[in-house]
Specification:
The chain is of the alpha+beta class and 128 residues long. It is built from 4 helices and 4 strands; from the N terminus they run H-E-H-E-E-H-H-E. The termini are far apart.
Length: 128
């Protein structure tokens, strides 16, 4: 193999490595068809830390019993507005799963526990 051909092949290999690095380095994101239920709120001033913890832990119990719940998030890192002091998210497989959750007896059972500690909440449901 001639030195010129080697240089050309080496140059092509370098270009291929550079292009694959650019392609692999691009940010990849998805737009899942799941449904996200985002809740922010504030606790009643008279609610106890135990009631609050029971309400948040109850989300795990409820999620294990209601079909169609994929994931939960229960540890917020930032909450707005500033007077609110808790947040959680429930991810559903579909809008039908969200509707099942809303009418499920386990949701009602958890709602009674949650209602003892909750002063106000705001809910948002988001999908693609």
């Amino acid at each position: 193999m001639s030195p010129t051909l080697r240089r050309i092949l080496f140059g092509c290999a370098l270009i291929a490595v550079l292009i694959s690095g650019v392609i692999m380095g691009q940010n990849k994101y998805g737009q899942p068809k799941t449904v996200i239920h985002v809740v922010t709120g504030k606790w009643k001033p008279e609610s106890t830390p135990e009631q609050r913890q029971k309400a948040i832990e109850g989300i795990k119990v409820m999620a294990a019993k209601i079909p169609g719940i994929k994931n939960i998030w229960i540890k917020p890192t930032k909450i707005q507005p500033s007077e609110f002091n808790y947040a959680f998210v429930i991810e559903f497989e579909s809008e039908a799963a969200l509707n099942t959750y809303a009418g499920h007896p386990e949701h009602d059972k958890w709602g009674a526990i949650y209602g003892e500690a909750r002063e106000e909440s705001r809910n948002n449901v988001i999908t693609n």
